[in-house]
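Blinded run. Sample ID left blank on purpose so nobody reads anything into the name before looking at the predicted structure. Input follows.
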Amino acid sequence: MTIQVASGSLHAMMKDVPSILFITDPYIEHLLEGVVDFAREHRWALNAMMRRSGRFPEGVRPDGIIATIEHDDTARRLARFRCPVVQILRIRKSTGYPLVIPDYDALGVTGARHLLTLGRPHFAFYRRFDAGDSDAVRDGFLRTMRAAGCEVSMLDFPHSMPRKDSSEKIWELRLAKELSALPKPCAIMAEDDRCGAQLIRLALDVGLRVPQDIAVAGCDNHQPDVNLSPVPLTSVDSNLRGIGYAAADLLQQILSGAPPPSAPTVITPHGVIERESTAAFVCADTRIAATVRRIRSDFAEPITVSTLAREAAMSVRALQTGFKAATGHSLRDELIRCRLDRAEQLLENTALKIQAVAIECGLGDAKSLTRFFHQRHHQTPNTFRTSVCGKRIQTSR
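Blinded prediction complete.
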């Protein structure tokens, strides 16, 4: 996707157009996309050239700044500007600027709920970094698992193996050893996508199968990290684009005279983007497990219960009974769940018309999609699209 942004120098040429500086330390593409969405709607002159040069802009006088802040030098430079600053993410300790962050606890809850749909594997959580944000993801995950009556193994490296006591190689050897020792099959949530990709790589190195032996879910749905995974990585989508948009909206409010909020602005995650790394289901009957995997991979196809029963070499009644015992719900409910999950992704991330969304997710027509959607969300697909995205997506005419 090509993003066009206006140079901050245009401020002198464009009356009443705010000149906004985007500081990228580090640079995360989806955050900028959200800022750009807002900038286009509100006619900002947006200077985001730091994403290309990597150098802090010199000789600029912005009206406001949106920034990710990791290094002390960036924090010092920002302090020299006499204009409002909104910080995105909490990569370093508090700078005192208004802050827009994901709902980290909800990310952990969402990841746990997804792994609970994988049947009855052993569960684990991998925490690599000693930070409050990873603590919150972990706490949401553990609380949800314990409420479901599930035990969780902790790969808690800041606690058991402080970074100052180990090299990267020693760290990875220790992690590989702990992976090998976990009860199998095991489903693991990592605190972020970098850690998820690392788990998968090390699991493959020691001869484990992903997802059959080790299923892995990451966190953020940060595309570069997801793409670096040897097996396509399932990830909880923290709504990075929405976070960028919310940060721009907050800066606009401050520029308009509103007082900066004292508490962080917290953005709800979008859900789980399912990929191959969690394409597993564990139960005593391998035929039921195969049926679950078939539905989850081919839900958009015209699947019937009789076809599934024939493939499983079971009677329809036996398949229905065994499926509900293993999953807690019916074959039909599973099929509708998968189709609605896909419909939500399409509504959030594309401009497809409702009829096209219905066809793509396997529900056939807009009437069926609307009926099932209203049963789940108590609103129409179009209302959902508008409210979740934070702004209306213009559909093609």
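Unblinding after everyone has recorded impressions. Residues 143 and 269 are 17 Å apart (CA to CA).
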